[in-house]
Amino acid sequence: MQNRAIVLLLIFLTSVVLGRSKADITEKELRDHVLFLASDSLKGRKPGTPEDIMAAEYIRSQIALPQVKFPTENGLQYFEVLTALELGAENALSVSDSSYILDKDYYPHSISENGYIDAEVVVAGYGFNIESDSLTWRDYDGLNAAGKWVMILRGDPEPDQLDSPFARYADLRTKALVAKDAGAAGVLLVSGKIFDEKDDFAELLINEGHISAGLPVIQLKKTVADRLLAVHGLSVDSLEILLNESRSPHSLRLNERIKGSVDILRIKSRTQNVAALLPGDDPSLADEIVVLGAHYDHLGFGGPGSGSRRPDTSAIHNGADDNASGVAVAMEIFEKLATAKKRHRSLLFIAFGAEEMGSLGAKYFIQNPLIDLKKIVFMCNLDMVGRLDSILTLYGTGTAVGMEPL
Predict the structure, then answer these.
(1) Given this model, what pLDDT does residue 21 score?
(2) Which of 94, 135, 160, 273 is the most buried (most CB within 10 A)?
(3) Which secondary structure element, helix H or strand E, spans residue 32, and what is its range?
């Protein structure tokens, strides 16, 4: 924890909130906050866990000063987050008289909507609908996909080129939404040998399944898809090669109906933001609010889809820098400002939950504000300030009014 960076930030904040303050910010207090929040006992502060609640209650206890007003009854703003995806009991897939086996022949994708579909199947190549100055590839031209299952290859024709113009269109959610726009009832994903030689199923991941694509999406094994494509003398692998070499669409109608249902259970848990208000006492400025924020959640035990840099490792992700450091600094600054004899502007402290899941706490606060958002004149967000080396780095200055000259 670099004292100089903290002092620089404190000087800046006091210039917009107050004139003088007597409370001291000490290295010991900062260290104690970080050691508690990043301790093994808090198990990585994953949203929706008992340890997440412990972290929030600790933060609230540290800022519950006599001058502080909580904008909610207990200083906590509750909201729900998706914490797990599980397979339900109603997943099924059959073609003609053949029934297929879950997790062997097919598997629902995280982005899938729940539902049952009995419909014909068409093939839409890579599932593109691209029309730009430099690239045109329209798999749905001349293909009636309305009300049908659409079979789509994963990936794109240039899998080894990081700067491929196809890359921005190869995301599965993007492909599913294109299929939906074409009127598709559901999407069947298949993997060619070039894209995935092992033909593995994608796991149910929260970060992908946070919002469904709005229609059922099922991944098929090549053995299943090859039986469907055989009527045209094709296989998944040969179709992939044809598309990659010709660099042009190759859409087909298959003379088969598929009955399929998807049942994914989206498990939600409650988490919270922690918010506290220090009213200003200057009649001309007290109505203006400065927001001091930092997210307090982290990755729990990590794992696939968690955002961990080692997704294959399940272990406590302590999150000392990200972002126990920012919360510690924010709490100490808030305490210092709370002891001031005079506060010109009002100050809102907010520790956001579920930031690692997509800034969900911040989004919930904006959509369900505890104050009049129009009164906010400045917001300072502290994130990962535990490893600064005597330099305070400000991000987002290009989109924040007045920050560039400051």
Answers:
(1) 46
(2) 273
(3) helix 27-37
